[in-house]
Amino acid sequence: MSSTARILPVVLSISCVLGLFSSSMAAPPDIRYLNPAGGQVGQKVDVTIDKNLGTLPVSVWTSAPGLKVMIPKKPAKGKEKQITIQIDAAAKPGLYWLRFHNAEGASGIRPFLVGTLPEQSETEPNNDLAHAQKCPQPAVTINGVLSKSGDVDTYSVVLKKGQTLVVSQTANEQLGSPMDGVLQILNHRGTVLSLIDDTLWFDPRIVFTAPEEGTYYIRTFAFPADPNSTIRFAGSGSYIYRLTFSTGPFVDHSLPLAYHKSASKPVRLEGWNLPDHLKSHQPNKDETNSTALISNPQLANWLKIPMSTTPTLLESNESQQEKGQPLSIPTSITGKISKPEEIDVYHFTAKKGEKLTFKVDSHTMGYPLDAHLKLFDAKGKLLKEVDDPVRNHFDARFDYSIPADGEYRLQVTDRYQHGGFRHVYLLSIHPTEANFELQTPEEQYTLTTGGKPLEIEVTINRLSPRFNDDIEISLAGLPKGATCKPVVSKVKEKTGKSVKLKLEAKHDVVFQGPIEIKGISLKDKTKVRIASAVIKGISPKRNTARPKPDLKLPYLWLTIKKK
């Protein structure tokens, strides 16, 4: 996508003149979370915001088309914090980002999920089996909140013998809820039959096959994502979750795990309760060509998979033979460690001096494999072995310079010899390429005209192998009357690691909108990177070691207002 297209506001909904504050108390929106944090395609959702909308009129920017946000002219008493979101019938399922803004500034960016299932809200009291909330069949998404310390939410469902129920919670990873959720399945006596903590990082998913017909109970509670000294169940208004119940089709992963634009065949789907006609699907590329969407009205969930730069392959039975499955470089191949102690073997030919990058993605995609990579020469000599390249990063990666012409073998396994249905991985072998990343310390900035220029610091991370080109860093999306000169980052100077963009505006300029900070290699103009920022307010502090990093997005925002 071009830089101009990326920064344009996609959906803009404007409230009317009356505000929650007088003009003497003008304030920007301050939105901590939305409840519910999602809705069904084609439906209208009443949403409560926390903390406040700020001074009206307020507008709302969204990251993709499909949502219309409506803010009442005159809110009814007791509903001053309620808005309505209309989800278009043609909206794509997935994660949307919303930013509220007015003349004074903007809120932090906040998530809103769009799904395909009917939706309900949690109804209290539902703390125990006697007051469990009934779930309709075959599938529903319930929006809930563990609103106070010690809170437990309980739901009931009637299952036939042999029927498989999938219960999947979305909270910490996509909604930023500061909770580490737990799911339990209980029988009518209150006996815990199954318990799951972390499935998709901190969010649990439980798959349960009923041993006999009857009523079963699903119980959820949480601990803080950042552990503290308390030992009881945690809760607060920010412990928002979405809980999907399905005895129908539910997809876990695709084979292959990535999609290439040249692919003519659909990907194969694996999950639970999938009928034959849903076991394959043709993914739809998004506007950025970076991901592809797998969605069907009959599926209880949707799946996004990355776009691959090379055609994607699937592991064959040859990977279980001593010599292994042959590969041509560059390549991307999807495999699975389907049972404990399994080792997948691949072999390829390379020439002396070739610099190759070997990478396995699994954990960062939400799967449990702790990848362990070994590279051997034709004689069986171990040349390189990698488990975690850096602390708390469970996906293996290394660069290697080929010492001689010949055949080489690569082994992929789980570090602890685990294996199973979800132990899938995406192995890629490519010529080593120097690269860089850009990051800003804030996701939004404010410039007051008539005062000092606004300086935006941009950090340049020159990835290994070190990226030595000069990089021109510029800012796009400014209105007429605002200027910002590009700055060049030179590797052997102070600007090699960071630069400062200086933004100025004429005294009569007023502006609210997305901006884009872009870095272009002056040596190779095809190398373009967009700056991202850590999103505050939905990325937990994570006081303890945690394998998944803070959320970074490229959606930067600028407010220009008069002094």
UniProtKB/TrEMBL annotation:
Residues 1-26 form the signal peptide. The lineage of its organism: Bacteria, Pseudomonadati, Planctomycetota, Planctomycetia, Planctomycetales. One of its GO terms (biological process) is proteolysis. One of its GO terms (molecular function) is peptidase activity. The keyword Hydrolase applies. This is Putative subtilase-type serine protease. InterPro entries: Peptidase_C_arc/bac. Its EC number is 3.4.21.-. Keywords: Hydrolase, Protease, Signal.
